[in-house]
Amino acid sequence: MTRRQTPNIIITGTPGCGKSSHSQSLVSQLNQDFAKDTTISFKHFNISEIAKERDCIESYDAKLDTSVVDEDKLLDSLEPDLEKGGVIVDWHCCDIFPERLIDLVVVLRTDNSNLYDRLKTRNYNDLKLQENLDCEIMEVILQEARDSYIPDIVVELRSDSAEEMDENVERISSWVIKWIEDHPNGVSNELEKQYHDDDSEEEDSNEEDEYELEQEEQEEEEEREAAEEETNEEMEHTEDIAQ
């Protein structure tokens, strides 16, 4: 059973929201933060490029001027990388990745006026541009993330300026540092095992609570016995005086 020592993070959102810029900046920051630890490193996986490099394109959509990815083949290709950990996944789609291999999902949100300008500079055709604007308005990707992963690991961040990107990268970097501190032995790549580990921690906590409760009850019992003994002694003393 394999374990990963560093977290995998998905940075997702509508095209034009700044996924690649965030991912590149984050990887640079993290590798700088852990420069002294040769066992820790992070990699940026731009899935659009990875899909082409690993021959995972199954067709082409002429209307939307975009490639259609063979998701099963892509996942088979990516799974060994994800099991090693330290992968920053950069893609507009997030719900295809196994929950057991993902530790944080960052959904970037952008104001539609900014998004329109960014997509225009990419020369998106009218149909493709409108579809992406509608996707952002309807919060499609955010909802996909919430439907696919536990709420605790899904984070929504604004991405309308360079300043916000810097703040986001700093925030995610701090989260990664804390994650590594909290998981000195890494985490299992099996979802069932992860849940078992969580259950074990909860059981340990419950056992500690039960032990503390038993200790408190024992102390209270000893106090009651001591009080009764003291009362009996006082009564005996009173009887002696009366006699």
UniProtKB/TrEMBL annotation:
GO MF: AMP kinase activity; ATP binding; ATP hydrolysis activity
Residue stretches of biased makeup (Acidic residues): 198-233
Any GO BP: ribosomal small subunit biogenesis
Catalytic class of the enzyme: transferase
Protein's cellular compartments: Cytoplasm; Nucleus
Keywords linked to the UniProt accession: ATP-binding, Cytoplasm, Kinase, Nucleotide-binding, Nucleus, Ribosome biogenesis, rRNA processing, Transferase
Similarity remark: Belongs to the adenylate kinase family. AK6 subfamily.
Subunit (UniProt): Interacts with small ribosomal subunit protein uS11. Not a structural component of 43S pre-ribosomes, but transiently interacts with them by binding to uS11.
Protein name: Adenylate kinase isoenzyme 6 homolog
Protein's organism: Candida viswanathii
